[in-house]
Amino acid sequence: MTLASTTLTWYVARAGGMVAFGLLTLAIVLGLALSGRAQLKSWPRFAVEDVHRFLGLLTGIFIAVHALALFLDTYLPFSLINLLVPGTAAYRPFATALGVVGAELLFAVALTNRYRKRLPHRLWRRVHYLNFAVWTLALVHGIAAGTDTRTGWGMLFYAVSAGSVTGLTAWRVLRSRGLAPWGLRLWPGAAAIVAVEAVVLLALGPLRRGG
Asked: Which domain holds residue 63?
């Protein structure tokens, strides 16, 4: 394999991972908006739900692109075992393991979505909460394993993603508990700022070597 093709697979792997995380973040944000019954006036509810499911499907597709490119890459080759069994990869084993676990959890959640009508609603709902675990694993995996983390745009990408999901999650939880309007404006914003700071500190501190 030539140097050009090796470089291509590495770029495809990086792009696939970033796009997959971006789509996953959008799916989480839209899911929180749906669960909070946000007033999405420009879209009917059923259409938003379809977009939510489609984003989940696209996320899975780009995760597959990410994994396939890593498998085909010859500079830092990943075997099938490395891509399926957490902790077996030589490249940043801890960070890579988080990505493997996150992808496998996402597959499990997708299976429950596929058979949602056959499952008890309470069980499906509890399994659906694993999306937050998947997103968190993907975030730390991207920060620790990604080679673009310490670029300006990469740091901004992860910071905005973390702030959006954390802030909206805080808003959703506090809203369900009937918090006063001023609290709904203050605390979600504070949570988002803390999440952004955490991403920057992790990227520049404990995770700077990638694990």
From this structure: 3-146
